[in-house]
């Protein structure tokens, strides 16, 4: 009897599956028509040797000073962003430079959080796994910042 009740929805519910397991893939976003779609303003903060900390973004209006503002679209790849950062950062132009990308966004408590999302090489000898990832693939939301660590 108890077994039959569980099968019919009675009893204790099963726990949800772990994140990423048995979940349908997210639908691929439609490509952006860059001729007709207005770009978004992406605030990019660069730092040599590592990412900025959560505390560096704690006070609104007192973000790190090394800011670059880029107009782009949500379908921009990390490779495109790497090339744009190289235009303004001498350190990123080094032949062996590695760029690590992180999103900076407000968490549920309103504090800024830094989450690493991918890495590229300044001058790759071969295609890197993260080169073709887009901002929308990585769940970028308009208003997030991009923190770029240059190693």
**What is the distance, rounded to the nearest whole angstrom, between the alpha carbons of the first and last residues?**
63 Å
Strand order of the largest sheet: 2-1-5-3-4
Task: Categorize the overall geometry.
Answer: globular
Query: Mean pLDDT, as a whole number?
Result: 86
Number of strands: 5
Q: Helical residue percent?
A: 10-25%
Q: What is the CA-based Rg, rounded? A: 20 Å
Summarize the helix and strand pattern as letters.
HEEHEEE
Structural class: alpha+beta
Tell me the β content.
25-35%
Largest sheet: 5 strands, mixed
Number of helices, where a helix is a run of at least 4 consecutive DSSP H or I residues: 2
Low-confidence parts lasting 5 or more residues at pLDDT below 50? none
Notes on the protein architecture:
The chain is an alpha+beta fold and 151 residues long. It is 11% helix and 26% strand. The protein is built from 2 helices and 5 strands, in the order H-E-E-H-E-E-E. A 5-stranded mixed β-sheet has the order 2-1-5-3-4, with helices on one face. It is globular and about 65 Å long. The chain starts with a helix and ends with a strand. The model has no long low-confidence stretch (mean pLDDT 86). Involved in the tethering of the SIN3 complex to core histone proteins. Keywords: Repressor, Transcription, Transcription regulation. One of its GO terms (cellular component) is nucleus. Belongs to the SAP18 family. GO terms for molecular function: transcription corepressor activity.
């Amino acid at each position: 009897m108890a077994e039959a009740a569980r099968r019919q929805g009675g009893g204790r519910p099963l726990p949800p599956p772990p994140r990423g397991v048995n979940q349908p893939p997210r639908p691929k976003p439609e490509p952006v028509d860059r001729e007709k779609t207005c770009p978004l303003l992406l605030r990019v903060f660069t730092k040599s040797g590592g990412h900025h900390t959560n505390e560096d973004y704690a006070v609104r209006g007192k973000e790190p000073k090394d800011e670059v503002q880029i107009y782009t679209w949500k379908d921009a790849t990390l490779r495109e962003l790497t090339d744009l950062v190289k235009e303004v950062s001498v350190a990123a132009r080094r032949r062996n430079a590695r760029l690590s990308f992180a999103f900076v966004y407000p968490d549920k408590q309103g504090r800024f959080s830094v989450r690493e999302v991918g890495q590229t090489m300044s001058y790759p000898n071969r295609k890197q796994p993260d080169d073709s990832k887009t901002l929308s693939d990585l769940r970028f939301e308009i208003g997030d910042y991009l923190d770029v660590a240059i190693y």
